[in-house]
UniProtKB/TrEMBL annotation:
This is Transcriptional regulator, LysR family. InterPro entries: LysR-type_TF_proteobact-type, LysR_HTH_N, LysR_subst-bd, WH-like_DNA-bd_sf, WH_DNA-bd_sf. Belongs to the LysR transcriptional regulatory family. Residues 4-61 form the HTH lysR-type domain. It comes from Candidatus Rhodobacter oscarellae. One of its GO terms (biological process) is DNA-templated transcription. PANTHER family: HTH-TYPE TRANSCRIPTIONAL REGULATOR (PTHR30537), TRANSCRIPTIONAL REGULATORY PROTEIN (PTHR30537:SF3). Keywords: DNA-binding, Transcription, Transcription regulation.
Amino acid sequence: MAQLDWNDIKVFLALYRCRSIRAAAEELGMSHSTVSRHLTDLETSLGAVLFTRSRDGMLATSMSEQIFARAERVEGEVFDLQREANSLDTALVGQVRVTAPPLLSQYMLMPHLAAFAEQYPGIEISLNSSFSIEDLMKGAADVAFRSQFDPNENLVGRRLPDFVDMAYASPDYIARHAFENGKTDAVWIGRGLIDPSHGWVKEGPFPDAPVKHQIPDMLDQAEAAKEGLGMVVLPCFFADALEGLQRIPGVGAVSSRPGWVLTHPDLRSSVRVMTFVRFLVAEMTKQKAQIQGDIR
């Protein structure tokens, strides 16, 4: 049997999980043809067909089912080796791979990343906008910024201020509607597939207000609210800075979530990673009032 290539195995795992050459290519940052070539190389090395194509995408063969668990173990060993190598650095040079939700990276992190880069010119920042903790667990990132109640217990976390959400609408929309004693004639802008049951409405300040329109993306929600489509619940650090939105009068915090900076335990001895974590925690803690909506 020919020697196996890790890149071929990596492509196999992405295809098995995504069941689509296009989705696997996007996940790996490869071209469609490169993914196909790696799959062909692996099938040639194994002397077996791993996937068949259908209308529903790539269907795993019995051979794929047999080797998937072993391939995952190889992946885990490679990630462990990468993390161990990264943890051995003792100089403030090299790359720090960061993942953060898009809204946080665009509206809060950028000035801090710029300040860090100026102070530590030997460190290069690689930023990926993502919500997944798997970025850390699979070795695709060194540091993750998240707002959640229960971060993965296998990760090392530093607390940030709690991220507070409040209710917003355009000034004109607020002027045209009544808001009193938990009652309103206004409508909520829905979150689409993110929460199709609208459970957040029942827990909010106007539980009987109807939901109209479905707009999952927060940037789009903000623009929709500016144009008078209804009320939205948005993070204070983002919405308070936008022209054309105001807090709904008489309504306090709608929800809050603990903020975290997370990293893998194997990277605690990495000087550049921990320097980055300490710097960002310190800078973001200075913005506690903005994050929690205590200032406008």
